[in-house]
Amino acid sequence: MANNAARQIERQPRVNKPAEKPNRQVRQGYSPEQQALRKLRNVFVTGIVSVSACLSIWLLSVQANNYEMNTNIQQQEAKITQQVQTNSDLKANVDELSRYDRVYKEANKNGLKSNENNVKAVDIK
Known about the structure:
The chain is an all-alpha fold.
């Protein structure tokens, strides 16, 4: 019989009791001083956020400008390096073409003859 009673209890539908809601205290309105402080705090927070946003945008623009300037500097340095290389190559060509034996050979080839009476020695001081 005890077994039969247990089965009957199991078969009975369970009734869920609604959870009791915690008692909330109803807030009364803020005093004028508290309202003024809340407004001031909201204005202050809004100002801080606005200044932060402006500074962030300014910082991003400065960084973008720096990146652009660095890119331009690197391009100019590459051009300078290339020009220095070209200048050194041209100087090597001038040195090679102005060797005494080459100039003498070209002069003889074009019919010029060396006359020692027309050559004067110059002392460089």
